[in-house]
Design a protein that fits this description.
Layout: H1 8-14, E1 22-28, E2 35-39, H2 40-46, E3 51-56, E4 62-66, H3 75-87, E5 94-98, H4 103-106, H5 116-143, E6 150-153, E7 156-159, E8 165-167, H6 172-175, H7 204-209, E9 224-230, E10 237-242, E11 252-262, E12 265-274, H8 277-286, E13 288-292, H9 301-314, E14 318-323, H10 326-332, E15 337-343, E16 355-361, E17 364-369, H11 374-384, E18 392-396, H12 410-422, E19 426-429, H13 432-438, E20 445-454, E21 457-467, H14 470-475, H15 494-497, E22 500-507, H16 522-539, H17 544-551, H18 555-568, E23 579-586, E24 589-599, E25 605-615, H19 622-641, E26 647-648, E27 651-652, E28 671-675, H20 693-705
Parallel strand pairs: 4-5, 9-19, 17-18, 21-22, 25-28
Antiparallel strand pairs: 1-2, 1-3, 3-4, 6-7, 7-8, 9-12, 10-13, 11-12, 14-22, 15-20, 16-17, 16-19, 20-21, 23-24, 24-25, 26-27
Helix pairs in contact: 3-5, 11-12, 16-20
């Protein structure tokens, strides 16, 4: 099962252009804000580049060109589920193919920020509905009957008075010659038959029986395999290498120095190219490399947090947002709550390690792999290889997890460089050790949170964040402006209800490649800000949810709190019985979680249950949402309690899962997921379930034990 990328020209050839098939897409009119609909026939005549295609052939088979990646988040199911709803076809009659990287054609193709559905669903609904109307119109024209007497169902158009019917394939030739109407009324939520239903994922069978093609499964004729010994320090260089023993390994063809772009610098290494994965890895083991590690700081983890702590004592930082005058209010307060929180560096550690296939030829470079951001790769690699952007073709395969790591450009660039030197298509493979020791990582961050309680009310909340700014790293230096994500995770209604509140970034730089990680800064901000709110509620002698309710006056927030209280039994719980709570927002979705913990007979803390309530507005498949929340809880549990990336003398100290341990199946608590029903626009689903877990967990531990946890990770077995 290979969701092949396909060019527009080849796709139209396959579909017989527009004469024997219906191919509907969208295009932008100059200076227009909305996309217009157009058929392939009219696009060809006008010389217009279509995108977001729906193609229906003469057999009635529907093919969707998906411009985003499928990395386990469920878009491979959700996208056809949306189209099938308005198109009135059975899901079994829909195929999905990945579009190649082409920003001019598809716009933003980045699979991240929980943006695939929330950014595309309205357009997909419109495409499905318009295709249906064209087919119904074609049937009415063929029968010579009023349009109102015809309707679509299960890939057919029926004539009510006579019961006559056509299947879609019989109508596509006529439909392809019609002009698509631009304003089609869409179904109401109450009319949905597929959307909102917990349908089984269409990719699950292929991903469990081996049919699905991931990056490592991609094969090309004459393809070679490469493993790279990279400098273990991020900015080190190759001083010299001895390939004598490596070249003795059967199958090893070439050994040469290589470098790949990592943001604004280059990472150096030595590539071993061979006829098999095994030969490449054995050749890599036999290499002898001398590294030059001079010219940059060999940083230690303890130094990172010491510097961050020291900066937060006196540095007011770059102000991002302010309401009122927090500093003046703090200076006059009789008592100030002043606490520091710390979160660790984290590896992405996706199930599928990084890999990429590249085939360089002087006139064209083609790339295949698990890629979250094809247009970024296309742009970066074309510049690095000094090749016209249109000649760099980026094809997406299935991804075995990404979490942001596979939106980066380093590994496709490295594959391209190696293919050019090897003179053949090459698959570059990263071992787990490469993945863990090379990064990039979620940045480790320290927070200073100050607040004042006056007469039981929170009058001041001042937050400062010291940690690597992802944008700072990619630009090479601080921009002089505060990190836009400093307040990420903190709900917007708080700014309307807290008299004095501010967020500032205290600039911190380090020679460590840092980048987005699932839920980005909300994953760390959420722990600090929500933990602080729980401490403020305790100081005010208020129930944590009642405390939040007083400041989250938005109707949707109030309804979410009502639901969270009800499903978790919050109001009926016993005091000091191990309940904790947190509510965060990211990517236009708010999630509240209640965590229940208890102490076992052996004295160890156990997570008994997690209740999660998600308000993501319009949604597609509740089973996929539940799976994403469950996965977020597990990932949040690992980041909070079992693993972190640490540095000593500029070297990463973790190598594999034996020293970067993942939570085991026995550690996974029961998770009960509830989805709020409303008519708001769609928000994200894949990431917002992670940020509230850690602060809810530590709040529950405080409720049970009286111990505040302000530093992650912590050991659940020794609390």
């Amino acid at each position: 099962m290979e969701a092949n990328a396909i060019s527009r020209r080849n796709f139209l050839k396959i579909s017989g252009l527009a004469g024997s098939a219906l191919c509907l897409g969208t295009y932008f009119v100059a200076e227009a804000k909305n996309e217009n609909l157009i058929t392939a026939a009219n696009a060809e005549k006008a010389g217009i580049e279509m995108n977001a295609w729906i193609h229906i052939d003469t057999n009635g088979k529907v093919t969707i060109v998906d411009h985003r990646a499928e990395m386990g988040q469920g878009s491979y199911q959700s996208v056809p589920q949306i189209v099938a709803e308005e198109l009135e076809v059975d899901l079994k009659d829909i195929d999905v193919i990945f579009g190649e990287g082409n920003q001019e054609k598809f716009g933003n193709q980045i699979t991240g920020g929980s943006s695939t559905i929330r950014g595309s669903y309205k357009n997909l609904l419109k495409l499905g509905a318009t295709s249906r109307v064209l087919l119904v119109t074609a049937a009415a024209n063929k029968w010579g009957v009023p349009l109102i007497d015809c309707y679509a169902k299960s890939g057919h158009v029926f004539h009510r008075p006579t019961g006559k019917k056509f299947h879609y394939g019989e109508l596509v030739e006529v439909a392809s010659k019609l002009t698509p109407p631009q304003d089609i009324p869409l179904k109401t939520r109450a009319e949905y038959k597929l959307i909102g239903k917990p349908l089984n994922r269409r990719d699950s069978p292929a991903k469990t029986n081996g049919e699905a093609i991931f990056g490592l499964d991609k094969k090309l004729p004459g393809m070679l395999y490469a493993a790279v010994e990279r400098n273990p320090r991020m900015r080190g260089k190759v001083k010299s290498f001895d390939a004598t023993e490596a070249l003795k390994v059967p199958g090893v063809k070439k050994v040469f120095k290589v470098k790949m772009g990592v943001f604004t610098i280059y990472r150096e290494g030595v590539a071993v190219v061979a006829t098999s994965t095994w030969a490449a890895l054995q050749g890599k083991k036999a290499l002898k490399v001398t590294w030059d590690d001079t010219g940059f700081e060999h940083i230690n983890t303890a130094d990172i947090y010491k510097i961050q702590h020291e900066k937060l004592k006196t540095d007011e930082g770059l102000l991002l947002q302010k309401v009122g005058n927090p500093d003046a209010a703090i200076s006059k307060a009789a008592k100030v709550i002043d606490v520091v929180y710390q979160t660790p560096y984290q590896s992405h550690s996706a199930m599928e390690p990084v890999n990429c296939v590249a085939w360089y030829r002087p006139e064209k470079l083609e790339i295949w792999g698990p890629i979250q951001a094809p247009e970024w790769v296309q742009d970066f690699v074309s510049k690095q290889m000094k090749m016209p952007k249109k000649n760099v073709i980026v094809n997406m395969t299935f991804l075995g997890g990404g979490f942001g790591r596979k939106a980066f450009m380093d590994y496709p660039h490295e594959a391209a460089v190696i293919s050019k030197e090897a003179g053949a298509p090459v698959q570059v493979i990263w071992k787990r050790e490469d993945d863990l020791t090379q990064g990039p990582y979620r940045p480790g961050i320290t927070y200073r949170c100050q607040g004042v309680i006056d007469n039981g009310e929170m009058s001041v909340a001042k937050f400062r964040m010291a940690g690597q700014n992802i944008d700072h790293w990619s630009n090479g230096k601080s921009s002089g402006k505060a990190n836009d994500s400093t307040s990420e995770g903190f709900l917007k209604p708080y700014f309307d209800s807290i008299k004095n509140v501010s967020f500032a970034e205290v600039v911190f730089e380090a020679p460590i490649p840092a980048m987005w990680w699932r839920s980005v800064y909300a994953s760390t901000n959420g722990f600090a800000y929500e933990s602080f709110l729980n401490e403020m509620a305790h100081e005010a002698n208020k129930d944590q949810l009642d405390f939040r309710r007083a400041y989250l006056k938005d109707e949707r927030c109030q309804q979410l709190i009502d639901k969270l209280e009800k499903v978790s039994g919050w109001k009926s719980r016993d005091k000091k019985s191990g309940y904790g709570v947190a509510i965060t927002e990211c990517f236009n979705t708010t999630v509240g979680q209640v965590v229940k913990v208890s102490r076992q007979q052996n004295g160890k803390i156990k997570i008994d249950k997690v209740w999660a309530v998600m308000d993501c507005g319009w949604y597609v498949n509740p089973d996929i949402i539940a799976a994403q929340v469950e996965g977020s809880v597990l990932m949040g549990l690992g980041a909070a309690t079992t693993h972190e990336i640490t540095f000593k003398d500029g070297l990463v100290q973790q190598n594999n899962f034996y020293d970067y341990p993942m939570p085991r199946i026995a550690d996974m608590p029961p998770v009960e997921v509830h989805i709020m029903e409303n008519t708001a626009d769609a928000g994200g689903v894949g990431e917002p379930g992670l940020p509230p877990f850690a602060p809810a967990l530590t709040d529950a531990i405080f409720d049970l034990t009286g111990k505040r946890i302000r530093k992650l990770p912590f050991d659940m077995q020794t609390v």
